[in-house]
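Worked example

This section walks through a single chain of length 294. The input is the sequence exactly as stored; nothing has been trimmed or padded.
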Amino acid sequence: WERHVTVLPCTQCDCDVVHVFEAFWQQSPVAQQLLKTRCAGEVVVDYAVLCSSMEEFVSDVGEMLQREPSRVLLQLGVAADLCANDASSPPTVRVERVRPLTPLSQLRASKVDTLDSIRGTVTRVGAIRPLVLSASFKCSKCSHEETRRFVDGKYDAPTFCGSGGECKGRSFELQRDSASTVDLQELKIQQRDDDDVGRVPRSIDVELLGQTLVGTCVPGDVVVVAGIVRSVNADVAGGRHDKHALNTSTYVLYLDANSIYNETTRKNATTAALTHHHHTAAKKTKPEQATKKK
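Given that input, the structure is written out below as tokens.
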């Protein structure tokens, strides 16, 4: 659990939940198969499969995900890591095709910090950029180094020396080579025309984090995105960071994606596979017909 303490403290409540989830990863055949087939340190599971296979361990895992998605996903990840016994990076649990789908018209303030799934068309894809998750700072006075995590990408330098000694240094040098980064990409998704007939189509910004999510779609793709609804200061979202912008009380919603299911790509792949199958079958049939003629 030591490598998870910074994101999920080892409290009694968390220990109890993780213990139940650990039994799921150890005893469920579906869970064991998911751990074996994980890719790039990520465990991808369909929402319906997760709920059905976990019924004998937790009957209301769907409700738990809806209420506290961030915490429950971390608990699932810790439990999976304890079972996998892998020295590599801890696995991230991604849940695909969460049901029911939420219309964009229902994404309001009451939905903040809940898990929701939306379906729409990608209208804009931003460039892939690095987001700094953590970095070390060196005290200019005593050379003590301290690692700081940047929650939600917000820069947070230390304000005093944490060496525990008599040093009262307040000047710190960022150790750039110690920075831990992750890929970040922003999308804009517009609701489907048949979702809200007679109105201007609604849209929402979606934030993708991680190498398995970025670069998975292009404008025009129809996708199902499951993620946590977040809110951000409207002026800050527009690029302003002055005092007036920080004092603004108007916020906008965006979706912090946990998974993205590209229906267009999957449909094209299925069509290509069927075409190849029919083509192969036709090639096998032609020699047989020629032999019969002879």
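What to look for: Helices lie at 12-27, 29-36, 47-53, 61-67, 69-84, 234-237, 243-246, 263-293.
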